[in-house]
Amino acid sequence: MTDLPAAFADFGPARLSAAVIAAYLVVGEPFVGYVLHRRFEGRLRTDPAARRSFYRRLLVLEWGLALVGLVVWIASDVGAAQVGLVLPQRWPGVLSWLAVAVLLLLVLASTRALRSGALAGPPPEVLRRTRPGEARHAEPPGHAALAVLPRSRSERHLFALVGVTAGVCEEWLYRGFFLAVVAALVPGLPTVGLVLVAGVGFGLAHAYQGLSGVLTTGVLGGVLAGLYLATGSLLLPVLLHVAIDLRFLLVPSSALPRVVG
Fold this sequence. Notes:
The protein has 261 residues and is mainly α. It has one domain (8-255). Helix content is 67%, strand content 0%. It contains 10 helices and no strands. It has helices spanning 15-44, 50-74, 94-116, 124-129, 135-138, 143-148, 153-185, 191-204, 210-231, 235-246. The longest helix is centred in the middle third of the chain and has 33 residues, at 153-185.
């Protein structure tokens, strides 16, 4: 398993800051993400630049928080290997490979469903005839997540940056940094416990997607945490995370729900 910090004292003078960031990831990020997404949805119907603006905001927030976490780590006595900032130390075991294989199969199935247009929902003319009280029921499953996906070429360019950013910053924050703090606060926590904590924390960060989104991203976070702990490095989780996010670029805009004014 990854050589995680054995005690909170390993963070030295950065202990309080490390605890604050870890708490924000679990408690603050779900609230901030929910508020930002609701504001984004409010602008989406009237502002053609809403998605690009939302992407830029995500880039600033994720890189900003990742850099803060990096500064706190540098100020601590925790080594690079204890937060996964090294090359893989060993190959994943059979269980890790099996979990990754199942995850990839689910990702391929969801991508195929998206590309088919099955989740696009009713056509715009049907939605326009929907009475106000019925509008919510007309939304396709996963509407909150689908609304974020790019439609135009300029949106796709920015979304590609967002996908890479999410893979790098979120793996550093939710696997490398967060699990180091958890292990330091709860010495001796088994690998299964760390995987569960990582999955719950990552799922809650996507609370704006509703219960299905929390469960889906929670499973993703758990698998990536298991891969990280099995290899001792964030490299494979980062690459897998980036690939999973960038797969949305394969979905044509015609297969996605349309915004109706």
